[in-house]
Design brief:
Layout: H1 4-7, H2 18-37, E1 41-42, E2 48-50, H3 51-57, E3 67-69, E4 75-78, H4 83-93, E5 101-110, E6 123-132, H5 137-154, E7 159-165, H6 166-175, H7 180-191, H8 195-203, H9 209-217, E8 222-223, H10 226-232, H11 239-257, E9 264-267, E10 280-286, E11 289-298, E12 312-318, H12 319-327, H13 329-341, E13 343-348, H14 353-362, E14 378-381, E15 386-391, H15 396-401, E16 407-411, H16 412-418, E17 423-427, E18 433-439, E19 454-457, H17 460-470, E20 476-479, H18 486-489, E21 495-500, H19 504-508, E22 512-520, E23 522-526, H20 528-533, H21 535-549
Helix pairs in contact: 2-5, 2-12, 5-11, 6-11, 7-8, 10-11
Bound molecules: adenosine-5'-triphosphate (ATP) and 1-O-pyrophosphono-5-O-phosphono-alpha-D-ribofuranose.
GO cellular component, one term: cytoplasm
Enzyme class: transferase
Catalytic activity: 1-(5-phospho-beta-D-ribosyl)-ATP + diphosphate = 5-phospho-alpha-D-ribose 1-diphosphate + ATP
């Protein structure tokens, strides 16, 4: 029998062979050529360092770092990215060198996540640049410009760079006197364009209405530069937010002056982790890859952690993601053509199907055939250039994440369970129900603090987040695929985590709601790239659906 531990690579790690390896080196060498032409000097930090180095810079990556100990018992970690190591080496090794420093790198970074896809791997290659010692819009525009030039040089044809400014959000958070926890929670919800959750959180916070409106509008403020002007027009912005928006405008104008405007879009709602970003941030997107192909931003306080306070900005490109985007150029071309012509909407089969179809029907789409008892899976409205696909509810987030569908209609339960990286743009106001812990009446009052308990659920991720994450109870989670109510009845589990709508299923099986986890309803979700590349159509559709909901 074959020993897979000997013949296979661990999950998320892969051999790169033949043409793929060729392509990888071509990309790296093209990138290095561009960097060198702009005066960037190659540096190579070690593959692993003291864990404290990375932890000081990126606490949010702490959990996903590969950690181990040296013979002296000191904790080490494989680098989760290059920026931290380069900041450390520049802070400690560059004294006496003329500023600004222009440094570049190529190599592997590591992430200990459950990663299987080409887009999210445990070992992945990055090429990138860091421009250290200059705080100016010119410097930020330089790194974005070089990222664009690199993408062009490796052969990318259609891509978009979104630029944002985290200091705008931080200025608002300071004005609202939010605690670090509240700031991070709000930041995450804005970054996910999760309008419903933003509103829910703002309802619990006490702040002037102008600030509330500014936060609420953040996720809608993307597109042309006019969104920065709109944000600037808002009354009583503090100096930090104002300067941030002015800085974003300056960067945009510099890039415009270099003829790069066609690639640039502004997104004020883009506020990824604030571990070290202090100003401009950017992410690059293309068709067929549901994740950014490059990203970067300004980090003016990171170097200070290593003993030398210098402003800095940088950009990193994900080589595997570029390979995936370039790999099958023909397929990409076909996909581009198809997505140029049609917007694809994935609707969930089952309980949400009828109401989802109805919304599009009310908006005048030709969806009559979907209501018939057909076995067809794709329905086309030729006039409006929309395609509708009917898929299993739990697959909707996958279709949308990968860009096989631009838009999806799906329950919040499925979204939470999928953990996918999508824009959640609208609560559709139907499919109301709740996620709850349920069980026999005798379990009431007996859940608190218990660790020896079995929880059956079709939603193991939600159950785990609730029990392990929120309540700190390390209960056993048992995954079932349906008829979950049977669990406590046949002794498989003490309780269940499941959807409760009318409560009829629970009642008929002698069970009751013990704890409510969260309210649920149908949501409209949008692929991150479609939101950028088909902005007008998508925004127009969102507006029309909103109109229908009123
Ligand atoms: N796990 C991964 N697998 C493959 N490529 C990755 C991975 N993580 C990051 N990259 C690539 O490296 C680039 C820079 O990574 P970095 O960690 O600096 O940015 P990030 O925006 O935090 O990444 P992500 O959005 O993937 O979490 C990303 O834009 C992406 O292209
Ligand atoms: O409160 P109620 O109105 O009774 O609805 C709740 C039931 O509906 C869902 O099951 P679904 O019909 O999706 O089938 P499943 O049991 O196979 O998951 C859910 O898992 C509950 O069993």
């Amino acid at each position: 029998m074959r020993n897979e531990k000997v013949t296979h690579t661990p999950k998320g790690l892969t051999d790169i062979l033949w043409e793929e390896c060729e392509l990888k080196y071509q990309i790296e060498s093209a990138a290095r050529g561009v960097f060198a032409a702009h005066g960037y000097k190659m540096v190579q930090p070690p593959t692993f360092e003291y864990y404290d180095v990375y932890h000081a810079a990126t606490p949010n990556k702490a959990e996903s770092m590969f950690k181990f100990f040296d013979v002296d018992g000191r904790m080490l970690a494989l680098r989760p990215d290059f920026t931290t190591s380069i900041a450390r080496l520049a802070a400690t090794k560059s004294v006496g060198q003329q500023l600004p420093l222009r440094l570049c790198y190529a190599g592997s970074a590591f992430q200990n996540d459950e990663a299987f896809s080409q887009a999210r791997q445990r070992e992945f290659s990055q090429v990138g640049i860091e421009l250290i010692g200059e705080n100016s819009a010119e410097a930020d525009a330089e790194v974005i410009g070089i990222a664009i030039e690199t993408l062009q040089k490796v052969g990318m044809r259609r891509f978009q760079i979104d630029i944002g400014q985290v200091a705008y959000f931080m200025g608002l958070a300071e004005q609202a006197a939010l605690s670090p926890e509240q700031t991070d929670c709000l930041r995450e919800r804005i970054n996910d364009k999760d309008f419903v959750a933003i509103e829910q959180l703002l309802d619990t916070l006490d702040m002037p209405n102008t600030l509330r409106q500014a936060f609420l509008k953040m996720p809608t403020r993307f597109g042309s530069l006019s969104v920065a002007d709109e944000a600037l027009a808002q009354e009583s912005l503090n100096e930090k937010s104002k300067l941030a928006l002015e800085n974003l405008k300056q960067i945009y104008h510099i890039l415009q002056g270099r003829g790069l405007e066609e690639y640039i879009s502004v997104d004020l709602g883009m506020v990824p982790h604030l571990d070290y970003y202090t100003g401009m941030i950017f992410k690059g997107f293309t068709y067929g890859i549901g994740f950014p192909i490059c990203s970067g931003g300004r980090y003016d306080t990171l170097m200070g952690k290593f003993g030398r306070n210098l402003p800095a900005t940088g950009a990193a490109l994900g080589v595997e993601r570029l390979m995936a985007a370039l790999h099958d150029d023909k397929a990409a071309e076909t996909a581009e053509k198809a997505s140029d012509e049609y917007i694809t909407v994935a609707l969930a089969k089952g309980r949400l199907a009828e109401l989802s179809i109805e919304i599009f029907e009310r908006l005048g789409f030709d969806v009559a055939e979907m209501k018939t008892k057909t076995r067809k899976l794709i329905f086309t409205d030729e006039k409006r250039k929309f395609k509708f696909i009917l898929v299993k509810a739990s697959d909707v987030p996958t279709y949308v994440e990968y860009g096989a569908a631009d838009i999806g209609v799906v329950g919040k339960d499925t979204l939470l369970e999928s953990g996918k990286d999508l824009y959640e743009v609208l609560d559709l106001g139907f499919g109301f129900c709740k996620m709850a812990v349920a069980g026999p009446a005798q379990m009431r009052g007996r859940l608190e603090g218990r660790n020896i308990m079995r929880v059956a659920s079709k939603y193991p991720r939600i159950a785990r987040d609730y029990f392990h994450g929120i309540k700190g109870q390390t209960v056993d989670i048992i995954k079932l695929n349906g008829s979950v109510e049977l669990g406590p009845l046949v002794g498989l589990s003490e309780v269940i985590v499941d959807i409760v709508e009318s409560g009829k299923t629970l009642k008929e099986n002698g069970l009751e709601v013990l704890e409510e986890i969260c309210p649920l309803s149908a949501r409209l979700v949008v692929n991150r790239v479609s939101m950028k590349l088909h902005r007008e159509t998508v925004v127009d559709l969102i507006g029309k659906i909103k109109g229908e909901l009123k």
